Amino acid sequence: MKKGIIAVMAIIFIVGFVGCVSYSHTQAIRNETGNTITEVYIRDTGTTDWGSVKNVEARRDSEGRVVYNWEGSVVWDTTNINNAAQVVFFRDSSSSETPRGMGNKDIIIKDGNGLFYMKNNVPITFTTTKDNLKDALLGGPSETLTTAAPITFTVQDRLPMLFVVNQTGYPLTLIAPIEVPINSQGRTQFQPMEMNRSINVTYRIGQATYTEQVTMKNEDATVNLTKRPPTITIVNNTGSTVDAISFKMPNAAAWEGGSIAISKDGSVHIGGARVAQTGDVAGRIINKDSMKLWLGNVNITGNTFDIGVDDVNKNSYVKSNVQVTNDMTLTFTQADKR
After folding, report:
1. Architecture of 231-336 per CATH?
2. Which comes out higher in pLDDT, residue 320 or 56?
3. Surface-to-core class of residue 307, CB atoms within 10 Å of its CB (0-12 exposed, 13-18 middle, 19+ buried)
4. Cα separation, 213 vs 74, whole angstroms
5. Which of 76, 108, 119, 150 is in Cβ range 3.0-4.6 Å of 28 for a Cys bridge?
6. Are the C-beta atoms of residues 101 and 54 closer than 8 Å to each other?
7. For residues 267 and 282, is the Cβ–Cβ distance under 8 A?
8. CA–CA distance from 118 to each of 115, 152, 155, 162 (Å)?
9. Higher-scoring residue by pLDDT: 37, 16
10. Predicted pLDDT at 273
11. pLDDT value for 43
12. CATH 2.60.40 in the chain, residues?
């Protein structure tokens, strides 16, 4: 009697077990860019954080066991996606035939050449398969109930390139959105992550900082950098030899930094005392002579200054509220004497 009961229970268990079904819901990213994909980033549409790279898998040893580091964390390895291949990135954990759904995503991929491709506001649809345990035990295939096309990246999804051309006549350092030096007449290029909006391209020449604005649309763009520190030509018509040049902000009580050291290439450096300094062509500007001063190394802000010169007889000559935005000439005469 007991054996009969056990046999009936076993039959009921096997029938129920064999009748079990499970569902899987997946969506893949497919690479048709012509290059190998090395990085994949995904974020929820409407958010700003791309987080860490997503094309990773746990490292396994020769026996298939997950590898952990000395801190007890799983060791992850980046997995590339070859051209014409696809990898599942989205899974719905619902156990029912109908997936619970997933919000839209923004996706960026990077190829082996460093180029980025992006899709925004991508709806996630799923391929749903049904697995019957009986078929699985007998080696039967899964049943595909619905098929969703993979999210396919092509060359058309490449982010536009921004070409930055240095036309200032001086070497500069690009400091935003990326940081890179550019020689005079040189250029660099990168792919901004912003689309259909204006971005600021900021650069530094000497101690002067400038910003150009460019609008990124759905095509490559070029921004020519032309702003640069101006050059002031100081003309000495005072009747005496000038041996010091100074700047200060308008209405400031003291001259900013004292005098200016003039190097042989015409660049200007603020000195520590209001006296003539070595390093310029002759240390002085004789009467009726002139000197060009490049302001790229002057550590002062704004573009309006009081500019003064001193002669060898300790007389001062000042021009007030001089607006310096472009190259200009300043001629000092006896009328400027203070």
Report:
1. Sandwich (2.60)
2. 320
3. buried
4. 44
5. 150
6. no
7. no
8. 10, 11, 10, 15
9. 37
10. 41
11. 95
12. 231-336
Which stretches of 92-190 are DSSP H helices? 133-137
CA 327 to chain centre: 32
Bond preceding residue 177 cis, omega within 30 of 0: yes
Q: Which amino acid makes up residue 293?
A: L
C-alpha distances (whole Å) from 244 to each of 160, 183, 270, 295, 307 are: 51, 32, 11, 16, 11
- Confidence class of residue 143 from pLDDT cuts 50, 70 and 90? confident
Instruction: List pLDDT tens digits, range 46-67.
Output: 999 999 899 888 888 888 888 9
pLDDT tens readout for residues 178-207? 999 999 999 999 999 878 889 999 999 988
Q: Where are the alpha helices (DSSP H) in the chain?
A: 2-18, 133-137
Which pair of structure tokens corresponds to residue 62?
């020769």
The H or E element that residue 185 is part of is none
Structure tokens at 2: 């007991």
Residue 82 in 3-state DSSP? coil
